[in-house]
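User: I've been trying to design a sequence by hand for this structure and keep getting stuck. Would you show me what you'd pick, starting by listing the structure so we're on the same page?

Assistant: Good idea, let's start from the same input. This is the structure you sent:
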């Protein structure tokens, strides 16, 4: 039997479950809770204190879980009594579950649609709650979740910069989805090559550049010719490492506004994660090291976004 992981934050206590929940213990999947009732508040609280991050469901129960999650997200976002912290935690869990699902099975229609819906919820929480972005960036990630955290950061910040640059509704939805899935190809590299994600770009050898560029091709190969994948999202994923100097994996110089935004935010967040820069240091480095790769006006607009969101130290 196949099992799919989901984040515990996407399950609300006392809410009736339409699927069985499992935990992974000593290399075995054990049934933790049966469908038909909700997890008691006290029991759920103990799990959170024990830092249990994931539940599992069977592959057959995926449609039931997706319907449950869709309704839970809808109710959570619409409820004025739910705190911003709780909304951010819910969306964070939905996005992380979707990204992980895409990493495991990028060819899956269900995984892509889950990601698309998670991206819309992320956009909603970021647009409706001024403090949401700061809370998203304040969350720490484990080493194992570094790419997932990076993907969530890029999606959320690209949305904000996209709004600043007057992208239309469709473009904003596309950049949010592309931000979440742009690095799914990294998990298709072998373990040793995956470590290149954490290596500073300035220290890449020519061989490193070639190998790391494969993560773009691998992601596109997985998504190509799938009728449920938006072509504009595909283009964004394909070109998220491209820069105006033409030094990206595809050597593309003429970038759309959305492609430039996604590429810039991707580079910025990698500075934070791989070099340990503060936001101010990362912006300064962008100004010095990336000026030929991005328009100065775009970098300045990005700096304004970071400042207005309280993200500049």
């Amino acid at each position: 039997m196949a099992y799919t992981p989901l984040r515990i934050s996407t399950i609300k206590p006392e809410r009736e479950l339409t699927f069985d929940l499992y935990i992974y213990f000593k290399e075995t999947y054990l049934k933790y809770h049966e469908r038909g009732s909700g997890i008691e508040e006290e029991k759920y609280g103990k799990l959170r204190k024990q830092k249990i991050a994931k539940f599992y469901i069977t592959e057959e129960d995926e449609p039931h879980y997706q319907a449950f999650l869709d309704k839970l997200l809808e109710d959570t976002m619409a409820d004025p009594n739910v705190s911003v912290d709780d909304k951010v935690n819910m969306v964070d869990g939905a996005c992380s579950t979707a990204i992980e699902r895409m990493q495991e099975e990028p060819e899956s229609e269900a995984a892509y649609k889950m990601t698309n819906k998670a991206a819309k919820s992320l956009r909603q929480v970021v647009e409706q709650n001024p403090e949401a972005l700061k809370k998203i960036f304040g969350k720490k990630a484990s080493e194992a979740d570094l790419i997932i955290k990076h993907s969530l950061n890029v999606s959320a910040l690209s949305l904000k910069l996209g709004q600043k640059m007057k992208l239309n509704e469709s473009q904003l939805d596309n950049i949010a989805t592309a931000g979440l899935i742009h690095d799914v190809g990294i998990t298709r590299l072998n373990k040793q090559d995956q470590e290149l994600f954490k290596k500073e770009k300035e220290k890449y050898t020519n061989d490193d550049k070639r190998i790391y560029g494969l993560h773009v091709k691998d992601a596109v190969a997985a998504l190509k010719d799938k009728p449920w994948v938006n072509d504009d999202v595909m283009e964004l994923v394909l070109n998220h490492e491209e820069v105006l100097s033409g030094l990206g994996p595809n050597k593309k110089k003429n970038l759309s506004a959305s492609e430039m935004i996604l590429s810039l935010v991707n580079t910025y967040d990698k500075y934070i994660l791989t070099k340990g820069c503060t936001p101010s240091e990362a912006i300064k480095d962008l100004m010095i090291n990336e000026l030929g790769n991005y328009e100065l006006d775009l970098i300045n607009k990005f700096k304004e976004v970071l400042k207005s969101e309280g993200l500049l130290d």
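That's my pick for every position. To get oriented when you compare it with your attempt: The CA atoms of residues 5 and 56 lie 4 Å apart. The mean pLDDT is 93.
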